[in-house]
Amino acid sequence: MRFLVCAGDPSGDIYGERLIRALKSKQPGLRIDAVGGALMRRACDETGSSFLFDLAGLGITGFIEPLRQVPRLISLHSRLATLMRLERPDAAVCIDFYGFHRHVLASAKGARVPAFYYISPQVWASRPGRIQTLKRLVDRMLVIFPFEEKLYREAGVPVTWVGHPLLDLLPEPSAKAGRHGPRIGLLPGSRRSEIARHLPTLLEAARLIRREQPEAEFLLFAAPQTPDRPYLEALERARRRKPELAVRLVRDEGYLERSKLDFALTSSGTATVENALLGVPMVVLYRLSWPTYALARALIRVRHIAMANLLAGRELVPELIQHEATPRRIARKALDMLADPQRLAALRKDLLSLRGILGGPGASERAAALLLAEAAERREPLRT
């Protein structure tokens, strides 16, 4: 059999890598063509699969910013549509990244290629009408949050909850005690645009925290697919203005450094789920370009943006969005929480409790088994 697996952003690249390895483990002879990022490229190289294009590396996010990449996206879509029409893979598997993948799914349907969506777009947060589009285009949704299964089933969309793949990647939470000062992580995001918007703010917040917590240790976590340069340039600019700022850049693919954090200043996204499952208290922030923010305000239908808060149904961790995400406010929230050990201990317990509702280990293997079975079931009618 032959699969097309397509991811378009850094988190999808993480999940796509795990999926490719699980698929090849279960069926070594499976041919895979992949679109994704650096992690999926590595998985393809190591499993004898074909990597077609680094879509995640484009760093596309928001509503307005993708317009700059329209020519590349059109070219890539045309390439994938031709592949599906002429070579008829047994399955097209799209991972999140709805704006591009809805066109890939439409091309799959036109080519009579079974289409699957792994990692649902956040239809519960905005634009619920997307569910009807997905109902028309996909053969099955594979979702990672339990509430998504109910949502799609009630809409008449074939759906299976497979659990969250991060539970296979994250180590067990580490003990946080025994240090002179708190170890604080800075996570500005994985896309270059997020790094540019968030990192200067986080560095200034770190400086303000250190004024009151001089023994605090700050670690800046680099995204796997992003080179050191944008981080180091931001650090150098910050140090020229404030020479006393001391922050260590780390690469932490196995999450071992992250699991030892006492606290984190984190942009909204997959990092908030990772921190929650590691029991790391945090302040969550996010900034968008102003045109994108104006559109987002009109479309977003949920009270919270941090997945830890959405899963808990209440605010576990503070959220500071757009104009509220100033260094002074971020630092003040962090300092207030760090000054209250009982509050931090209770928050850590609440965050770790979220592990129990996300399905347990083995999500990638469950997803791979389901995709292989469904593709095989649909294969014969299509080939006769």
Task: Report on this structure.
This protein is α/β, with parallel strands linked by helices and 384 residues long. It folds into two domains: 2-165 and 362-383, Rossmann fold (3-Layer(aba) Sandwich); 183-357, Glycogen Phosphorylase B (Rossmann fold, 3-Layer(aba) Sandwich), CATH 3.40.50.2000. The protein is built from 16 helices and 13 strands. The strands form two sheets. A seven-stranded parallel sheet has the order 3-2-1-4-5-6-7, with helices on both faces. It has a six-stranded parallel sheet with strand order 10-9-8-11-12-13, with helices on both faces. The longest helix is centred in the middle third of the chain and has 21 residues, at 192-212. It starts with a strand and ends with a helix.
Tell me the overall shape.
Answer: globular
Query: What composes the largest sheet?
Result: 7 strands, parallel
Helix content: 40-55%
Average pLDDT level:
89
What is the string of helix and strand elements? EHEHEHEHEHEHEHEHEHEHEHEHHEHHH
CATH names the topology of the largest domain as Rossmann fold
Distance between the termini: 15 Å
Write down the Rg: 21 Å
Q: Please give the CATH architecture of the largest domain.
A: 3-Layer(aba) Sandwich
Oligomer: single chain
- Tally the helices: what do you get? 16
Structural class: alpha/beta
Could you give the order of strands across the largest sheet? Answer: 3-2-1-4-5-6-7
| Total domain units | 2
CATH classification, class level of the largest domain: Alpha Beta
What is the count of β-strands?
13
Strand content: 5-15%
**Runs with pLDDT <50, length 5+?**
none
Q: What is the CATH superfamily label of the largest domain?
A: Glycogen Phosphorylase B
